[in-house]
Amino acid sequence: MPETGARQAASAGRTGVAFRGRSRTIALVAEWWSIEVLHGEVSAFRWQEQHDSALIEAALTNGVRDGAWHADRWGVVFEVLFDTEEQWETFRGLPVVRAALDAVPDPVNGLLIYRGRGGGAGAREPRRPKPAPDSAAVSLPGPADEPYLDLAAASAPAAADARPA
Length: 165
Description:
The protein has 165 residues and is an alpha+beta fold. The chain has helices at residues 5-12, 44-60, 85-93, 95-102; strands at 17-20, 23-26, 31-38, 66-72, 75-82, 111-115. The chain has a domain at 31-115: Alpha-Beta Plaits, CATH 3.30.70. It is built from 4 helices and 6 strands; from the N terminus they run αβββαββααβ. Mean pLDDT is 77; it is low at 1-15 and 120-124.
């Protein structure tokens, strides 16, 4: 009798590979998730100092397989590797995690949460959010026209009238 997907996944164990005869079936695929925090009114490094222990403990107690913090000039990234999306959702829904995410330095433009490792689009740095339009923002005037002097049309001052004596 063939194994069902759930039974196959259960027999795979932590490695994620189930063996049946000569074939191999990938049963589990772990996924990386990233939480990027950009600088705001307060440094993202300061936010990391305040919340890293709680986030690491919450990840460890909810089945994280791997995790890492990365710091750059624009902010910090917390990357975690969970076996299933349900584990990620459980971690993401914990009160301590929600409180840490609510306390980021820039709650409007300074928090990015996505599947994959930081910079997964190939760029070494995330796109910086554009500043919000402001009523005080005005466009700068364009370059002024350069003065034009037509030398061919200019006449010599009374040089033609003065004759040598």
